[in-house]
Amino acid sequence: MSAEFSEGKYYCQCVDCERKFNIQELPPKCPLCGSYRWNRKNKLNTETNTPTMEKKILKAAHKALKRRNLTAFFEHGQWWIEHRPSGAQWSVCDASGPSCPDGFDFEQVTQESED
Length: 115
What we know:
Strand order of the largest sheet: 4-5-6-7
Helix content: 10-25%
Largest sheet: 4 strands, antiparallel
Order of helices and strands: EEEHEEEE
Strand content: 25-35%
Distance between the termini: 54 Å
Shape: elongated
C-alpha cells in the first residue's frame, strides 16, 4: 500500500517539504526530502468529503431536525443540509453531547421560504 496522501480523516504533513501522508501509513522519515519532522493533522468530520460521511451526516440530520426530504452537500470545505421543499438550510458542525446525534450539530442559516 502506498504512503501517498488520499482523502481521509487523519493525515500527517512533512514540516520541511509539506508532503502529506495518511497517518496509518506514516513512514519514519519523509521519502521525498528525508526529514523526520512531522506535523500531525486531525481532519474534522465536517471537513471530510466522502460518500460515507455524507450518509452519517444525513442520518444525524434526520434525527436532529425531524424532517423528510433532506439533502446533504459539500461546499466551501464543509457540509450543509437543505430541506428541498422549503429551502431551509443548516450548516453542519462537529459537536458532542446528548443533543448532538452522532457527533454533529446543525445551525440554521436560511429560513424556510413562505412561497
